Amino acid sequence: MEKLINDFSFGLFFWQAIILLILIVLMVKFAWKPIMNSIVAREEGISNALLAAENAKKDMLNLKSDNEKLLAEARAERDLMIKEAREIKEKMIADAKSEAQVQGAAMIESAKATIESEKNAAMAELKNQVSSLSLEIAETLLKGELSNKEAQTKLVEKMLGDAKLN
Amino acid sequence: MVISRKPLHVIATIAIAILPLFSFANVSNDSVKKEAHEVHVATDANHGEAAEPQDKKAKVDAYIQHHLQDSHDFTFFSDEKEGKHYGFSLPVILIDNGLKVFSSSKFHHGETVAEVDGNFYKLYHGKIYKTDTAGTISYDEHHHPTNAKPLDFSITKNVVSMLFTSALLLFMFIGLAKSYKKGPIPTGFGRVLEPLILFIRDEIAIPNIGEKKYRKFMGYLLTVFFLIWLLNLLGMTPLGINVTGNIAVTICLALFTYFITQFSANKDYWMHIFWMPGVPVPMKIILMPIEILGTLTKPFALLIRLFANITAGHVVIMSLIAMIFVGKNLAADLPISLGLTLFISIIEVLVAFLQAFIFTMLSSLFIGMAVQDHHHDDHH
Amino acid sequence: MYNLIGAGLVVIGAGLGLGKIGGSAMDAIARQPEAAGKIQTAMIIIAALLEGLAFAALILGK
C-alpha cells in the first residue's frame, strides 16, 4: 500500500483526467452521437421496413381473401344464372310441349270432327245412292216382271201363297 | 489515393512483428544498471562468490519494476555495454517556484543532474527530486529519499501513450461516423467496430442502466471501454507501455465513474444511502456510514482490480521472458520460456478485453444502481 | 514472511469463491441453457467483485 501511494503520480493523474475529459467530449460530439444516431436510424428503418413488409403481407392476404370472395360471388352468380337459364329453358320446353299437346289435341279433335262429318255426309250420300239404286233396281225388276203375264200371275200367286202361310 | 494502401499495411505489420527482437533483447537499461550495481556491491560484500545469480535476479527484478513505472523518456531498447539508449526524450514540466519546462534528455536517464534556472534536479527511480549540484540524495531509515519533490506535470511516457491512443480512437470512430454518411452499413474497419458498439449498448448499457436512461451514459461507457481496451492491448506490444497498470490512471478512471454515478443519482439512491427505508431507526443510523463507505468501496474495487490485473499480467510475462537470462541452461530455458510466454500472452490478450469489459460493466452497474427507479413494495 | 502467508490465504479464499461461482454458474447453465448469456454476465460481475476484494487484500497487505 505504501509503495502504491509512493507510486501515485499526481502529474499523470492530472494529464489523464484532462485527456479523458477532452476525449469524452470529442468522442461524444464527433463520433458517438453520429454513430448512435445512424445506428438507431438504421434500426428504426429496418423495423419500419419489417413492419411495412408485414403490412404488405397482411394486405396481400386481405386482397387474396377479397379476390376469393369476389370469385366465389361470381361463381355463385354464374351458377345462379345457369340455374335460371336452365329453369327458363325447361319452362320453355315444358310450355312448348304443353302448347303443342293442346294444339295437337285441338287439331286431332277438329280432324275427328271433320272425319265424323265427312263420314256422316258420305253415309248420307251412300244411303241416298243405295235407296235410289234400289228403287231403280226395283223399277227395272217391276218393269221386267210386269211385261210377262204368266210371270205376273205366278208372282201374285206366290205372294198370295206366302200370305196364306203367314 | 495514388499509392495502394496494401503495402503500407504490410510494412506496418512487419515493423510491429519484428519489434520484439529489439525490445526485449537487452533486459536492462541504465537507471536500472545503477541500482543493480549497488545491489551487486552489497551482495558482493555479504556473500562473496555467490553474488552472480543474485545480481542477475535483482537486475531482472529492477527492470520489471522500472517497466511497471511511468518514465520521463520513451526508450524502446538500450545497449547496456555501450550505455546507449534508443528512443526519444519527452518534455519535463515542473512547478517549482514557477513553471519550468525542459527536455528529459537533460537527465541523461538519471545519470546526471539537470540544471534549470539555477535549480538542480535529479531523476531517481522514475521520480524527479530537487538536489544540490552534485546530485546527492539523502535517505531516511526506510531507504526513501528525503529530498524535496517539485510538482511534476511532465508529459511522460504514459501521457504520450494516452495521447496516441486517444488520437487513434478519434481517428477510428470519426472514420466510422463518416462512413455512415455513405450508406446505412459501415465499410472497412467500421464493420469490426460497429458490433462492438452494439455489444456495449445491448449487453452492458441497456441491461444494467435501463432502456430509458442508457443513452445519456453511452458516450462515457463507450469511450472508457475502447480507451481501456486499446491501452491494455498497447501494453501487450513490446513498446513497453504500461498505462492501465498505473495506479494514477486507474484512480482517475474510477473517479470519473464515481462522479458520474453520484451526479446522476436520483432521490431514491440518496434515500437508500442516508435513510434506508423499511428498517428501524437505530438500524438506519448504523447503515448510514456503511452505505456511505459502500459508495467509496465500489470505485475502489474498480481501480484496484484493473490496476492489479494488468500489473500482474505484465509481471508474469516479463518474469517468464527473464527466465532466459536468469537460467543457466539456455537450450532448455528458451523453449520453456517462449512457450509459457506465448501461452500467457494469449491469456493476456483475453484479459485485456475482459478487463475493459468488466470496467465498463461495473461502471454501468453502479450508474444503473444510482439512476434506476426503486419499487419499494417489490423488495426490502 | 507473514505477508506471503496472508497472500496465500487470500488466494485460497478467492480460489474457493471463484470455484463456487463458476460451479454454480455451470449448474445454472446446464439447467437453463437458454439463459446462459445472463448467467455468464452475472457470473462475471460477481467474479470481478470477488477478484477486486482479493486484489485489495493482496495490495493492502503488501
Concise summary:
The complex is a heterotrimer of chains A (166), B (380) and C (62). Chain A is mainly α and 166 residues long. Chain A is built from three helices and no strands.
Description:
The complex is a heterotrimer of chains A (166), B (380) and C (62). Chain A has 3 helices and no strands. Chain A has 166 residues and is an all-alpha fold. Chain B has 10 helices and 8 strands. Chain B has a 3-stranded antiparallel beta sheet with strand order 4-3-8, with no helix packed on it. Chain B has a 3-stranded antiparallel beta sheet with strand order 5-6-7, with no helix packed on it. In chain B, a hairpin with a 2-residue loop joins strand 6 and strand 7. With 62 residues, chain C is an all-alpha fold. Chain C has one domain: Up-down Bundle (F1FO ATP Synthase). In chain C, helix 1 packs antiparallel against helix 2. Chain C starts with a helix and ends with a helix. The mean pLDDT of chain C is 87. Classes of the chains: A mainly alpha (166), B mainly alpha (380), C mainly alpha (62). At the A-B interface, helix 1 and helix 2 of A face strand 8, helix 4, helix 5, helix 6 and helix 7 of B.
The multimeric state of the shown protein is: heterotrimer
Question: Strand portion of chain C, in percent?
Answer: under 5%
Kindly name the structural category of chain A.
mainly alpha
Count of discrete alpha- or pi-helical segments spanning 4 or more residues of chain C: 2
Query: What is the terminal-to-terminal distance of chain C?
Result: 11 Å
Reported for the largest beta sheet of chain A, the result is: none
H/E series of chain A: HHH
> Which overall shape of chain A is indicated by the principal axes computed on the Cα atoms?
rod-shaped
Instruction: Assign a percent range to the helix content of chain C.
Output: over 70%
Gross geometry of chain C = elongated
Membrane topology (chain B): Multi-pass membrane protein
Function (chain B): Key component of the proton channel; it plays a direct role in the translocation of protons across the membrane.
Keywords (chain B): ATP synthesis, Cell membrane, CF(0), Hydrogen ion transport, Ion transport, Membrane, Signal, Transmembrane, Transmembrane helix, Transport
Signal peptide (chain B): 1-25
